[in-house]
Amino acid sequence: MSIAKDWSPTSWRRKPALQQPAYPDPRRLEIVMEELAHLPPLVTSWEVEHLKSQLAEAARGERFLLQGGDCAETFADCTSSVIADKLKILLQMSLVLTHGLRRRIIRVGRFAGQYAKPRSEDMETRGDMTLPSYRGELVNRAPYTLADRTPNPELLLRGYERAALTINFIRSLIDGGFADLHHPEYWDLGWVQHSPLAEEYHRIVNAIGDSLSFLEQISGRPVNETSRVDYFTSHEGLLLVYEQAQTRRVPHRAGWYNLSTHIPWIGMRTAQPGGAHVEYFRGIANPIGMKVGPGMAAETLLELAEILDPDREPGRLTLIHRFGHKRIAEGLPPLLDVLRRAGRTPLWVCDPMHGNSEATSTGLKTRRFENILSELQQAFDIHVDAGSYLGGVHFELTGENVTECIGGARGLTEDDLRRSYNTHVDPRLNYEQALEMALLIARRAAQSPRQSLRVAV
Ligand code: PEP
Ligand code: CO
Description:
The protein is α/β, with parallel strands linked by helices. It contains 13 helices and 14 strands. It has helices at 26-38, 45-59, 80-101, 146-149, 154-175, 198-219, 240-245, 276-283, 298-308, 328-341, 369-385, 431-447, 449-452; strands at 63-69, 104-110, 123-126, 129-132, 232-233, 247-249, 256-258, 265-266, 288-292, 317-321, 347-350, 357-359, 365-367, 390-396. The strands form four sheets. Strands 5-2-1-14-11-10-9-8 form an eight-stranded parallel β-sheet, with helices on both faces. The protein has a two-stranded antiparallel ribbon with strand order 3-4. The protein has a two-stranded antiparallel ribbon with strand order 6-7. Strand 3 (123-126) and strand 4 (129-132) form a beta hairpin. It is globular. The two termini are 23 Å apart. Phosphoenolpyruvate (PEP) binds at residues 71, 118, 236, 267-269, 291, 322, 354, 426.
């Protein structure tokens, strides 16, 4: 990509920056940023470019992106079992999707840095006390005390270290053979035997195992490429001081890379053409994501695409739409249309989670499985009708047995939410609901082949 004009890792500071905390000790913040900038990066520019070329293939209908993980990671969840279970559910889903969609899957975790959250209010009032809102553990802590809620620059370092531990463990598992297709039992989650979905899942696993051994028998050698898989990371690029500190030049390549993650994304609340986030993102060489949804005019989207991807670089821009099941039919087509008419072919991804949040009668935030599925199914059809291609899905999920979303094969009800509601921010699909979602996408692709056909845009 060409180097952006009048851009530097700090040029965002000249623009209005939404959703940033007010640090009471700016000097301490500067010292921490300096320290962060000197630590080794979490990812390399080779990996980042490799992902970009895979995303370009997905935009052409040749691959499919599975992006998933927590709404907000927490430091306490940086444990071997939580990380391994998240990896397992993503591997299981990707296996099911490969089989159903007949495409290679790009796996991108919402992890190793998903620690900063946008909030609707800067301050929170309880009784006669008003404190800064909780903005994720990269910024402050959730307990309602002044000490916890005061933005603390040290947390930037703690978050970076947790991200490094997470990515290190994931790499080690994968390099050690954890994701080997010959051994899907390595990533069986304990529940699989007891699940109503077990049979369908195991049928797919066995079918893939049979195809592998058939190929190996006729070729007389092991099918390489099946023993390890690529795994990429992503997080919302919200806290600009953190992102700035990770923005580096690398030898032998032009441009600036954000080396804290492979694909950062711009959240819906910070996607203003004149805003600081768009300014920061336009100058980095990574592939970038952007959330789009209700309230974004088609012309604004076109303007943003021109700012963020002036060269129309393949794989550069991933647009993650999140309208909600009631609004997608009306909201999505004009966005597809404006970019198609401009000759632009971003990778389109559906996030069926964020437009479908609702509160229960007791005030808990939840999402209904049927609404999530409905948005997803509509998204596939709308893209086909528009001559476009839905090249990926974006879920909030966990490998644990939480009860945060209602519905699914086990029919979780509002009452079940009391049992294991652990999220600090948005409700996630539990492992069973997440796998079911993948099975339903795969089943649907098998029933309607036009969806799995490559569609020229
Ligand atoms: C999120 O992905 O957790 C999020 C805040 O999404 P959105 O920007 O779409 O609200
Ligand atoms: Co969320």
